[in-house]
Amino acid sequence: MRRDHDELLLSPEQLEELGRELDAIRSQVLADLQERDAMYIRSVVRAQRRMELAGRGLFFLGFFPPAWIAGVACLAVAKILDNMEIGHNVLHGQYDWIGDPDIQSKTFEWEWMYPAEEWRRSHNYEHHTYTNVLGKDRDIGYSVLRMSDGQPWHPYYLGNPLYTLILMLFFEQAAALHDVRVDQLVTRKRKWSESHATLLRLRRKAGSCALKEYVLFPALTGPLFLSTLLGNLAAGLIRNIWAFSAAFTGHTPQDAQTFTEQQIEGETREHWYYRQLMCSANFNGGKLFHILTGHFGHQIEHHLFPDLPSSRLREIAPQVRSLCIKYDLPYNTGPFLRQLGSAWLKVFTLALPSKEHVVGRFQGARRRREITR
Fold first, then answer.
1. pLDDT tens for residues 45-79?
2. Which three-class secondary structure state does DSSP give residue 133?
3. Which of 15, 87, 294, 304 could cross-link to 10 by cystine, CB 3.0-4.6 Å?
4. Is the dihedral of CA 323, 325, 329, 335 positive or negative?
5. Taking a C-beta distance cutoff of 8 angstroms, is the pair 285, 297 a contact?
6. Whole-model pTM above 0.70?
7. Which tops the pLDDT comparison, 180 or 155?
8. What is the residue range of 163's domain?
9. Which segments cross the bilayer (predicted)?
10. CB atoms inside a 10 Å sphere around CB 344
């Protein structure tokens, strides 16, 4: 259930103190950044490149089923690492301090269809500034789903589960279209000319990725073209399902709250911190699992400190949790499958109209009948 943002669980003094303590955690990590952090991200980049090389090399043996399966697995892991632990986190500027041109946020480009330039604006600014604010954060339902009871219900949303499934299977393609704002173009709230520049950048980036994945690399394997093409498609599908599930689970379980634009008017830094705690969710896992999910399992900490290296989030999670206990605030976490199931339950629940909506429609119809008598 949504709680209004003005129904704060803290007094002004407590809120200010919470802000100071969270600022202190961030400052502590920034002051401690060192060579081990640089070594970590470079090791992940090396692992990603080796996995991709192994996957593409194994497709040359695609006539042997076990080699093809191994190739799909290696390439899928490479795509997951490039997308989540490397791309998402590098684009947040988490490693700009190193000075390595290969992992600079302003020049980095990842290997999927969403242009990094568009991502930096829509994700880094819009999503992280207005996290879970209806009408401002377009990541709520990706402009396709109903993921909050604050979104007016429409019969269209009866397809919520189907739309979610399609979004999961084609996550790369759907994400790439995010900034085109197709929903606004269809409803004529936006002119095609306003999306023209974005479409051009998307066409260049998506065209380049599609050419490499579905023409160039398969062609390199000669008579195994179809086998390699299917392998690339399979690896991309695995990445899509994995990345969507991790992102979905960190943002939309049942207890993740949403806010209105009116509720964040005049929002201070302390209020922003408070909102991140109320609208984010974590999930449990081991070290390797967190690496393969881009540390999305620490979404609470990431939303609080998006510029801190992802590998440090696990270290500070106990401190953040302790603050939540101290101030009697929720710390939404649990096993991955339980959190994922909670998010999917929300999809099915919000596909249906709320009781208030049904009652309102019934009363409105009754009033109209009375007027016509």
1. 999 999 999 999 999 999 999 999 999 999 999 99
2. strand
3. 15
4. positive
5. yes
6. yes
7. 155
8. 12-349
9. 58-81
10. 18
